[in-house]
UniProtKB/TrEMBL annotation:
Pfam families: DUF6350. The chain crosses the membrane at residues 20-42, 54-72, 84-107, 119-140, 146-170, 210-233, 245-264, 276-298, 310-330, 350-377, 397-419. InterPro entries: DUF6350. This is Integral membrane protein. It comes from Arthrobacter bussei. Keywords: Membrane, Transmembrane, Transmembrane helix. Signal peptide: none annotated.
Amino acid sequence: MRLPTKPLALPMPLWLQGVFELGQAAVISALLVVLPVAAVWLTGGFADRSPESAARLAGQGWLVMHGVPLVLQFPAGVAGDGAVAGLLHVVPLGLVLIPLLLAWRAGRRLARASYTDQLWQALLGALLTYAAIGAGVAYVSTTPDAAAPLAAGALIPPVAAGIGLVTGAYREAGAWSRLVGVDFAAWVGRTSQHSRWAGSYAWSVLRSGFLAVMVALSLSAALLAVAIGLNWAGIAAVYERLDGGIAGASVVTLFQLGLLPNLAVWTMSWSTGAGFALGTGSSLTPLGSAVGPLPALPILGALPAGTLEYGYAALAIPVLAGLLAGWWFFREGENHFDEWLVLHSPRRWLTATASTLALAVLIGIAAGLGGAVVALLSRASLGLGRFTDLGPDPLGVGLWLAAEVAVGALLGHAVGPLLEREPRRR
């Protein structure tokens, strides 16, 4: 129960507290865009822009940080005979974490200030505030060259904020029953034993698939870091050609840091064999790369070029991720499908084989679906010409990752008894 700090003071309404908390998060996240843009403008980087134009650019940057697409208008002669419109769309996963973490903090604070049956008031006020801010920024940031749809500005920013609010409130509450007023443990306890076993099995499979995706992403991020280190000279050369000064280089670096998680997903897609595209008609896979002219982004200097003699070795990454997922499932001890088969057949060789194969397939499907989702989120489009196709194909990544993780899960679960065998006592 909450204890009032000032008994004689009027309590702030929960919806107003939600407005204040997420409004504060919007201001802090906006500063991370406004300050770099202001630094570039003050150093003469936007010589042809007025302060109002630079402010609108910062507003568009805030929207892009939340994954809001921008409709770009290109003049005649840039891409064809007449003026054309294109859609710039990218979800910079590194930058999205900033409003998400700020909202996570706000969710914890709102949960501490609310009773179980009143938390919805604070969350609703917070999300409506963020939607209003997004719509307002989209409206005032409209220029003849770029504009964000008002509906997208109102609906997309609250997605990341909503995820942060709910997870932060759950972290503070410690249980969904305190958060939504429903005791899920008691509800599960009223179901049959078979239903509980099936639920535990399915939940363990989903967590194993999630673990496989996270391991594959972590190993891919390490591979990306090695590639950046080995090609640092080429990256530095691109920085020198840009010649944007300290402010310009800082903005480019900040943008690239925001895209690093996207590039880690692209590296994972590359390691599966599905590869990714950097423009229509291009292809980068472990067996070879075929790309055309690329934007002057320094991080692209780390891309592999030509035929890679040992590129196929990267295929071990998703297999290793599946092996760890299969081993984790064995340690979890929730293979109730195997127990069910044992009750219906005395042939242990058959039941063990069937349950292990089924488990590998299910973990592979879970990992494939997770990989397809992150691949979809990592895709981008610059809205012009061949650069409307940037990133991996979600379907291809899902299929390749599912197959390779399934192979690894089969091996991991099969060798689990050997790895977990207790030493003999003398």
